[in-house]
Amino acid sequence: MTEVKSIEKPDDRRDFPMGHLEIVNMTGLVFGKATFEPGWRWTESVKDIAGTELCEVHHNGYVIQGRLRIRMRDGAEAEVDAGDVFVVEPGHDAWVVGDEPAVVLDFAGGIGDYAKA
User: Fold this and answer.
1) What are the start-end ranges of the E strands in 1-117?
2) CA-to-CA distance for 75 and 84, rounded, in angstroms?
3) Any idea where the domains of the chain sit in the sequence?
4) Which of 28, 38, 100, 109 could crosslink 66 through cysteines, CB 3.0-4.6 Å?
5) What is the rounded CA–CA span in Å between residue 17 and residue 82?
6) What are phi and psi for residue 83, nearest 5 degrees?
7) Domain 32-107: which topology?
8) Residues 6+ apart with CB under 8 A from 73
9) What is the pLDDT of residues 55-101, one digit of tens each?
10) For residue 71, which phi and psi values (nearest 5 degrees)?
């Protein structure tokens, strides 16, 4: 089997304050491309949509552009920058650092539930 789709023609697009998510659903893979504008923060832009205090989605990601700061429920923090590959467990907040949009590719199946009521 071969399956090919373009993120330029996503199966779903979810808009939220200061950003959006484009999703492609494939056999065995939910692929997302998220764009976060400067000033975006999960607890301010997505929290009310998700209905949880922190992001409860697991992320396997790659940063194409920009920088994000991530704070886990236990207070541990990390920063991811363009070119970084990362794994983040559920229970975190995240925000854009600097004046450049952050663009992130996400390969975790949980991204299909991101920014969804």
Assistant:
1) 12-16, 19-26, 29-36, 59-65, 67-72, 77-81, 85-88, 92-96, 102-106
2) 21
3) 32-107
4) 100
5) 22
6) 95, -10
7) Jelly Rolls (2.60.120)
8) 54, 91, 92
9) 999 999 999 999 999 999 999 999 999 999 999 999 999 999 999 99
10) -120, 125
